[in-house]
Design a protein that fits this description.
mainly alpha, 114 residues, 61% helix, elongated
Length: 114
């Protein structure tokens, strides 16, 4: 039983990683990511009540992918709100300096927001 759960979890995580890659190609900027997470959670709830399991799984993958982007990239649309609430801005201070290079054209890593 445990091996079956581990295999399903590994498949899910792999599917989430693929979805993050696909989503970054379609939406390279994470602007509005929090709204996207909220939208996906609503779609997951609807699927859980009304749709076959394969649709529930697909929506769960999308929720996890958007949550991963929110955690790793943040949401620039919230910067002013965060500053007004003294939560501070998102910081780009990657100790490896790879993310802060504007020529890379990729989102910053999770370390940039710690």
């Amino acid at each position: 039983m445990k091996n079956n759960i581990d295999a399903r979890l590994n498949k899910f995580i792999s599917d989430v990683a693929e979805e993050v890659i696909r989503a970054r190609k379609k939406f390279p900027d994470s602007y509005g990511a929090m709204c996207a997470v909220t939208e996906e959670v609503g779609e997951l709830a609807k699927a859980a009540m009304d749709e076959p399991y394969h649709r529930v799984y697909k929506e769960a993958v999308q929720v996890a992918a958007m949550a991963a982007r929110m955690a790793c990239e943040g949401d620039p649309s919230l910067d002013r709100i965060r500053e007004a609430r003294n939560a501070g801005p998102r910081e780009r201070s990657c100790p490896y300096a790879g993310c802060s290079d504007p020529w890379l054209q990729r989102p910053p890593c999770a370390l940039c927001y710690e």
